[in-house]
Amino acid sequence: MWESTQSSSPCSSSSSSSNLRRFLHSITPRPPSLFLPKSCIDNLSCLWLPADKDNIEYFSLADLWNCYEEWSAYGVGTQVVLGSGESITQYFAPYLSGIQIYTDKCIPASRCRREDNDAVEVESDSWSDDSGSDKLSRSFSNNSSRTWDAISEDSNFDHDSSFSMRDKLGYLYLQYFERCSPYFRVPLMDKITEVAQSHPGLMTLKSLDLSPASWMAVAWYPIYHIPSQRNKDLAACFLTYHTLSSSFQDTEVQCDEIRSGIETCYSKGKQKAGSSSTSPLSPFGLATYKMQGNLWIKPDTDDHERIINLYSAADSWLKQLNIHHHDFSFFSFHS
Question: I need a labelling partner for 277 at 20 to 30 A (CA). Which of 117, 164, 227, 239 fits?
């Protein structure tokens, strides 16, 4: 399933004539790429990185959140061509719907459960022993499948041994799922800032510190369009899923810093000629709400199949991680 969604990335071209493809392209965050040389890879978890690579491309979570700063304040605009042929700009506001961050080591973070607000659920400093997590390898392809195949290869794994699921998935540093009504949510950047007060790793971790099980979901709600229109199809909402791991990055780098007594080499803007300067986090999963008519599904294109594949990928991901994602359930029930 992963192969079918990733190989036909909706974000590969900004000039596509499909409203759906333009939307997925517009809401894809593109943090600056950093690069890790092979000489520094020995200090990292080999299970989480692509094999036989001379270098690893990655990004910092702080740079990722910066991509959402302006979007959280003003919304992100995407071109929408109406049935009449008229073109408008539709703006969507991003909200953090869910996130799980698994790290390669236990990072201290205070548990933050707010008794006065059932919508907030933040957990940390734990790890999953769900045997179903081994099946995650089936959701990936190419380099990522090799990563998860290496993790899942031992079918006789002893869950009581010291080499437990913690070694395979890492430590669950942060888990957050939004449950309150969209009318009472704060924009994504504000929520990240709030959660980072108890989980500072949100601002300091890098994607190469995270296992392939790390992910986030962003809910996109329409806020306005220019010029103004009365069209119920413009009320469509979207839920996108994005990986946070470097296991899906592939590039080159340079070593320029020594920190904490070990090489944590990373590049600040130094790139291999011809390589991309950003790390696009294209959605691997999608759910929709209030999407009616053909405004977002253009006839004679693969839009319908694309939505089915992306939805199936999100559904499979959540089931394999044994996660009840409130927004996904709501979108699915009302779609």
Answer: 239
Largest CA distance in the chain: 64
**Token pair recorded at residue 304:** 């319908």
Distance, CA of 241 to CA of 334 (rounded, Å): 18
- Strand, helix or coil for residue 244: coil
d(CA 168, CA 148): 9
Spell out the residues 6+ positions from residue 216 whose beta carbon is closer than 8 angstroms to its own: 96, 97, 98, 99, 100, 241, 242, 244
| Spatial separation of the C-alpha atoms in residues 33 and 59, rounded to whole Å | 5
Q: Which long-range contacts (CB under 8 A, 24 or more apart) does 5-10 make?
A: 5/284, 5/285, 5/306, 5/309, 5/310, 5/313, 6/141, 6/142, 6/282, 6/284, 7/141, 8/302, 8/306, 9/282, 10/282, 10/283, 10/306
Residues 6+ apart with CB under 8 A from 4: 309, 313
pLDDT at 159: 40
d(CA 162, CA 305) in angstroms, rounded, equals 44
Interatomic CA distance for residues 204 and 217, integer angstroms: 20
* 177: three-class secondary structure by DSSP: strand
pTM: 0.74
For the chain, counts of helices (H) and of strands (E):
9, 11
pLDDT at 2: 35
- Adjacent-strand bridge partners of 263: 258
Residue numbers of the chain with a pLDDT score lower than 50: 1-16, 111-120, 124-163, 249-275
Cis? peptide before 227, omega within 30° of 0: yes
For the chain, give the mean pLDDT: 74
Q: How far apart are CA 188 and CA 101, in angstroms?
A: 16
One-character DSSP codes across 76-107: EEEEEE-TTS-EEEEEEEEEEEEEEEEESS--
pLDDT of residue 104: 78
